[in-house]
Amino acid sequence: MTNAKVQNTLKQLNQLKMSGVNENIGNKPKNRYGTKKSSKSKTSDSSISVNNSSIEDQKTINSLESLDSLKDFMANYDKCKLHESATNMVFSDGNPKSEIMLIGEAPGHDEDIQGKPFVGRSGKLLDKMLEAINLNREKVYIANIVPWRPPNNRRPTDEEIDMCLPMIKKHIELINPKAILLFCLLYTSDAADEGLGVDLGGRRII
Q1: Tell me: the pLDDT tens digits for 68-90?
Q2: Residue 56's pLDDT is what?
């Protein structure tokens, strides 16, 4: 690489940094402006197939009536490819009868190994936070929007989140908490109702 190209690359990286970019969200670069190789008919057929599959999944999720049935459905759900690289599915922890539900973004390394949300360093911090307000894991219920660890602890993509949203919605419906505490960057309290797409029924978002 010539010196001019190096300087140009550094300039572009600096522009990204100045604009607020501080991480990548994929393992490989993606050309979003390139021409699509697939024909229009193939794309249309693929879209119809995906939509039909999503509709069937939604019907199945809507019919689930217990946490055990939701867990079984998620354990056998293979459309989100994150399950291929994850060690364990991270379903939940805590008291399912609690009126307080904590929701994280996705599991990290320690969560993936143990199969529980918020363990390791993040778990110790959460335990201290709960203790400060006279709570502990036996008094709250904890889950994640995405139940499988993304490779290299990257943030989940929009597509991965969209696939998992119906499951966390059902999770909230089954727990039926009075308050939801969001531990994620995907949704702020101002947009929680719209973002999660759940009928919160007067539940308090923190």
Answers
A1: 999 999 999 999 999 999 999 99
A2: 86
pTM exceeding 0.70: no
Q: Cα dihedral sign for 181, 187, 189, 193?
A: negative
CA–CA distance, 104 with 126 (Å, rounded to integer): 11
* CA 171, chain centre distance (Å): 13
φ, ψ at 179 (rounded to 5°):
-140, 140
**Beta-carbon contacts of residue 137 (< 8 Å; ≥ 6 apart):** 93, 94, 95, 127, 130
Average pLDDT over residues 12-41: 62
Distance CA 105, CA 85 (A): 17
Buried b (16+ CB within 10 A) or exposed e, 47-75: eeeeeeeeeebeeebeebeebeebbebbe
Structure tokens at 125: 């911090």
Q: Tokens 């379903």 label which residue?
A: 91
| HEC profile of the chain | CCHHHHHHHHHHHHHHHHCCCCCCCCCCCCCCCCCCCCCHHHHHHHHHHHHHHHHHHHHHHHHCCCHHHHHHHHHCCCCCCHHHHCCCCCCCEECCCCCEEEEECCCCHHHHHHCCCCCHHHHHHHHHHHHHCCCCCCCCEEEECCCCCCHHHCCCCHHHHHHHHHHHHHHHHHHCCCEEEEECCCCCHHHHHHHHCCCCCCCEEC
